[in-house]
Specification:
- There is one protein chain.
- The chain has a single domain, classed as Rossmann fold (3-Layer(aba) Sandwich), CATH 3.40.50.
- It has ten helices and 14 strands.
- Strands 1, 2, 3, 4, 5, 6, 9, 12, 13 and 14 form a ten-stranded mixed sheet that branches. The chain has a two-stranded antiparallel ribbon with strand order 7-8.
- Helix content is 31%, strand content 18%.
- The two termini are 23 Å apart.
């Protein structure tokens, strides 16, 4: 996969803004390529792009918001240096032990973020890579198996690795939602003060897409917590499959509010890498081969704005039909609709390109 050139990418973003209407309009619809599938349920998606602010070569003072809208920083440079650069744009300073939440990826061939991409940032943070065991079996369903996968995939060679649920789980309260009353996380989560949620944005068979919200909601949950989220708060044991699609999508955002409220919003930042954009998640050991181009890396202090920006960029891409179909089939946008409703973040944002 090749990245778009800077000129081509800026033209694409300009087209998004032009077709979205006036920059800054809070409910503008983002552009889609003319040959892409359209949203089947009219009005169910409020894809938003408020403005594009290009920083000068000298750089501008980083901002969390512009005109009241959270900022999402963007770079087309999908490299170790690009990842550090977009992180630094956030102007965020950790104050304690730093957990870097990733997906270790299901063997044998998933599209997890490679150590050579993330290692420089993790080491800059003196971070610990953290994960939880799965609730569906596979090669990451126990501590011994999961540690072996982490080693095989190269993560233990770049940083300390911690399975948050290796010694049990704990509960953090969730308020303000309709599906969950608690987040069930690995007990080691209490060992960290600051969090970098480093996610591979891609499709997902159940959620439509996976980004920052899913990386926290499912990724930080212990196995019983994963069942609890997947079944919209109805049980903690048994199958993760649940018949009410919108209910479990709502539970995703609600779990993240519990984490945010317990840890403190100022102690979490979110980064999404948009490469290897398969319709399948990194929990799939044999995912479909991506049939669209890589896009870039985005970062924000607002997980809703970040995931929304990634969704918008997928819709704007000229070769995203497969991923759009996957997102729409699972009504994935509802995760962001509900997350905004309960105050997790904003779907209206300012996109700031840091490459110029």
């Amino acid at each position: 996969m090749k990245h778009l050139t800077k000129k081509a990418w800026m033209c694409l973003l300009a087209a998004v803004l032009l077709l979205a209407g006036c920059a800054g309009r809070p409910e503008a619809s983002a552009a889609r390529p003319t040959d892409a599938p359209t949203q089947g349920d009219a009005g169910s998606s409020r894809l938003t792009v408020t403005a594009l602010s290009q920083r000068s070569a000298e750089g501008a003072e980083p901002q969390a918001t512009v005109n009241g809208a959270p900022v999402v920083y963007f770079t087309s440079d999908i490299s170790a240096a690009g990842l550090v650069k977009v992180y630094e744009a956030l102007n965020w300073q950790p104050t304690g032990p730093v957990a870097v939440k990733i997906s270790t990826g299901e063997p044998p061939a998933s599209n997890y973020l490679r150590p050579e991409l993330i290692g420089q940032l993790v080491q800059k943070l003196s971070g610990t890579i953290v994960e939880c065991n799965t609730a569906y079996g596979g090669s990451r369903s126990s501590a011994a198996l999961h540690k072996q996968v982490a080693a095989d995939h190269g993560f233990t060679a770049i940083a300390p690795f911690d399975l948050l649920d290796e010694e049990g789980e704990m509960e953090w309260p969730v308020t303000g939602g309709t599906r969950l009353n608690r987040a069930i996380v690995g007990s080691h989560a209490e060992n960290y003060r600051d969090w970098v949620v480093l996610s591979h944005f891609k499709g997902h068979a159940m959620a439509g897409f996976g980004g920052a919200i899913k990386n926290v909601a499912i990724g930080m949950s212990s196995p019983s917590g994963k069942v609890y989220v997947h079944t919209a708060g109805t049980k903690t044991k048994g199958s993760i499959w649940y018949s009410d699609q919108d209910a479990w999508l709502e539970a995703l955002g609600e779990m993240v509010t519990g984490v945010r409220d317990h840890v403190g919003a100022e102690h979490i930042v979110y980064i999404n890498v948009m490469n290897r954009l398969s319709v399948d998640c990194d929990c799939d050991g044999n995912p479909a081969e991506p049939d669209m181009h890589d896009i870039g890396i985005l970062a924000s202090t607002d997980p809703v704005a970040l995931d929304q920006a990634c969704v918008d960029l997928v819709y704007a891409a000229p070769d995203s039909a497969s991923l759009v179909r996957r997102m729409e089939r699972q009504h994935g946008i509802h995760t962001l609709e509900h997350a905004e409703e309960i105050g997790l973040g904003s779907r209206t944002y300012t996109l700031v390109d840091i490459d110029g």
